[in-house]
Write a structure and sequence with these properties.
alpha/beta; TIM Barrel; eight-stranded parallel β-sheet; 8 strands; about 45% helix
């Protein structure tokens, strides 16, 4: 673990966020997959509280290891989640960013009730339309939310997207973020929901995402360096 690199990265991100009235503690989910627990603990000591993991087994191991040393961590699951693995993270997970089916929502509901918890979920939306990406297509978001919004044990708190990789076309990138904002507004208007979060933007585009209305940005290499 390179503490100097992490310190430099955190300072740079914090400075950027401050300029637009955002904050590390409120708006950044540090994507810590494949990173050693000491790096997570070090970032926790620098006041980060939200950490995102993509793999269930790795997340469970880290949660158990860091439970006493970092008791205020909010664990976020940001990878593809199989229904048969929900039970392993249900006792402690704060937010699942990648719900895109009734089947998965139903399983989260079931496991949340078993653990006497309410689990925050975000609906993953495939704004790019790429077949290689997970997520529900925009036209199906409202029907999905209608079907699952009464499930006990879950709280639908927002939307998430992973946009297309658009190195040179900022306008297309912004259009995907704007689409997620419009979907949020539509859901709130038609289904009388209050959605707290838009999880969009990563290391290379988090400032653009925040400008377009993101409340959570998922930053991995921008904090920890290359894997």
């Amino acid at each position: 673990m390179d503490k100097v690199l992490i310190d430099q990265n955190l300072h740079r991100i914090e400075t950027s966020l401050h300029k637009i009235g955002a904050s590390m503690n409120e708006n950044v989910v540090a994507i810590s997959k494949k990173k050693e627990p000491f790096a997570i603990e070090y970032c926790y000591q620098q006041s980060l509280r939200k950490f995102g993991e993509n793999y269930v087994q790795e997340l469970v191991q880290k949660q158990q290891l860091l439970l006493e040393r970092c008791p205020e961590i909010q664990w976020h699951f940001t990878g593809h989640l199989q229904t048969n693995k929900v039970k392993y993270i249900a006792p402690f997970i704060h937010t699942i960013h990648t719900v895109d089916s009734v089947k998965l929502a139903k399983e989260i509901s079931k496991e949340a009730l078993k653990n006497h918890r309410t689990i925050s979920i975000l609906i993953q939306v495939n704004t790019s339309g790429e077949s290689s990406k997970s997520g529900v297509l925009p036209n199906y978001v409202i029907p999905l939310v209608k079907e699952i919004q009464s499930f006990p044990g879950i709280s639908i708190d927002g939307l998430m997207t992973i946009p297309a990789i658009l190195d040179e076309d900022e306008e297309l990138l912004r259009s995907e973020f704007k689409q997620l904002v419009q979907l949020k507004d539509l859901l709130e208007e038609q289904l009388y929901l209050k959605l707290t979060h838009l999880s969009m933007g990563m290391t290379n585009d988090y400032m653009i995402a925040l400008e377009e209305g993101a409340t959570l940005v998922r930053i991995g290499t921008g904090i920890f360096g290359e894997r």
